[in-house]
Amino acid sequence: TSKSFGVSSALVEMKRGFEGEDASTEAKRSSLGGCALKVLVPNQSAGTIIGKGGLTINQIQTESGSRVKLSQNREFFPGTTDRVVLVQGNLDSTIIGVHLVLERALNNPEQQPPDPPETPRQMKLSIPSNSAGSVIGRGGEVIKTIQTQTGARVQLAHKDQEVPGVLERIITVSGTFEQCKTAATMIIRSLSELPDGFAYHNLSTAYGQSFPPRGGPPSAF
Predict the structure, then answer these.
(1) Which helix (H) or strand (E) holds 190?
(2) Cα-based angle 77, 78, 83 (whole degrees, multiple of 5)
(3) Mapping DSSP to helix (H, G, I), strand (E, B) and coil, where does residue 187 land?
(4) What's the whole-number average pLDDT of the chain?
């Protein structure tokens, strides 16, 4: 019998909260034309996201209402050895989809014995370069708020670390699984404040050519 996993009660409550939002919020979300976020995962985590015969990735899509796509084997984010998971949907389904992807990539529920809740994790997201300002905020205010409220460390890659032609910047979040998950929610919400916050130049998991790994530390706020 295949092992299933469910959406946590917290995610169910979040979904109920979205359903109770007013018409102006819904109108604003509709004007976005949908949400999207790219999650970068280690190559060795790909199997836990796909599942046997694609069972797990199908469950993630069913439970969240989002569309989830994982880059093909050996198709990595440029300059890394990370696979790309693209989650698309409306605001609530994208948040829940990202949470379920992170649950598999960072906190594999099938691992026995499970790691303690306080085990440090690292999450990497790729956002459109033009949307970085909504995550940084004036004087770094937004990124500082995310760090203060979650307890996680949030770093945005320097603009000069962008791979030419990719037009995306990587956000690295370090903390416990719950801290990373909450930070992801806040980042998605920050992007949703912009009319084109989710406007990726390349809305796919493939980048068409090989790029050598790039070094250099991310910037911290």
Answers:
(1) helix 177-192
(2) 15
(3) helix
(4) 83
The structure's pTM equals 0.80
> Would you say 93 and 65 are in contact if contact means Cβ atoms under 8 Å apart?
yes
* pLDDT, tens digit, 9 for 90 and up, residues 110-134: 776 878 888 999 999 999 999 999 9
Nearest C-alpha neighbor of 4 from the set 88, 110, 96, 95: 110
102: Cβ contacts below 8 Å, ≥ 6 apart: 39, 123, 177, 180, 181, 184
Residue for token digits 């790994």? 213
Residue type, 169: R
Separation CA 15–CA 95 (nearest Å): 9
What is the Cα–Cα distance from 57 to 31, expressed in whole angstroms? 28
CA quadruple 74, 184, 113, 7: dihedral, nearest 10: -100
Pinpoint the alpha helices (H) of 73-164. Answer: 91-106, 132-136, 141-150
